[in-house]
Amino acid sequence: MTTRHDNSLNRACDCRTLDPDRLRAQLESEESLAGLAAEITRSRPHLFSATAVFISRQQLERMTAIIAAVESVVRVPAYRAAVLARAPEMARTDPGPRSVFMGFDFHLLPHGPQLIEINTNAGGPLLNVALARAQQVCCAEVGSMLCSPTELEQIDAGFVDAFRRDWTLQRGDVPLSRIAIVDDDPLNQYLYPEFQLFRRLFRSHGIDAVIADAAALEWREGRLWHAGQPIDLVYNRLVDFYLEAPSHAALREAYVAGGVVLTPHPHAHALYADKRNLVLLSAPGTLEQLGVAPSLRAELRSGIPPTVSVSPERSEELWGRRRQLFFKPARGYGSKAAYRGDKLTRRVWEEILAADYVAQEIAPASERLVRLDDARTDLKFDIRAFVYDGGIQLLAARLYAGQTTNFRTPGGGFAPVFIAP
Q: Are 127 and 386 in contact (CB under 8 A)?
């Protein structure tokens, strides 16, 4: 095996670095979580990969620079005006919080990382902390040269500090007493185990926490309530980004009235995660018209694949170039209803034209060699940067086969990221 650089490690090292006993200890750190590891193994067998992914220090620096460039553009008044003009009215006002766990997803190309999308409620941070803490050195060559891009011992406190800061940005010095981790039917969500980990984390830092179905929330007396208890802050895991569903009416009313601190919130989704924003961010000419500095335009031009809006007027052109394009719904999440152009049928193409989609030039995913029993196979991977207020808190990889990340691939799932100098 060669250890010359990160790509050589990803394509040549097939070692398994996950220590299952250590992972179980991380996941079941208190009595209330007993059996969690076994339940994940039973019901979510492809949540965790047994291997790690390697990147270079230069790749980390480039991802950091691209994220910083996006943050700088989001502060440009003309950009904000352009993206908020198409957002619902309730998303145009800034409530204050920076929004926890922004997800910046990258593919690693030979000429540098490519930012393929941004998400406002990126799942997996606590699961990936547990996974990263459960790694063992696979061989002397690798063990002598690896370092983690994050301080794993302090990261839990950093996560809680982000929630406390978002609270303070909207509420000032008022004490934060209770957090609700909110989703639709949370017990049946794929990442429900992480909700349990967050509940434990908040309680261990002196904040009461509950896991709540959005439909069970009540808005009355100027407060948001759950099971007879007032809620101060909602950790929002919903994918109804603008709270438009009838079952989210109480949360929407509380948010609009300023009766609850919501993080992440609709304003952040409009500024960052609407896929149509990639059209602006990847177009240097448009950014110049918006008053974005030349250095930022150059950074984003090299770091974001060219993206255009899909419209009937461009139908013939885009269909002709479809094999070089990836099609994503403007409000999409989790790769749902996203398609590689070379897999499109005419029926699906007509559905795309009738909906609100963007077309992004394909930035091929990197590959990681994985050992399955006695066989070896290459899986694709992306890198997710969990970001708060422009700073990377944690990096994680997702290994998969097929068009998109799916957590259904043997040998795939979340994987820790290490830096190979």
A: no
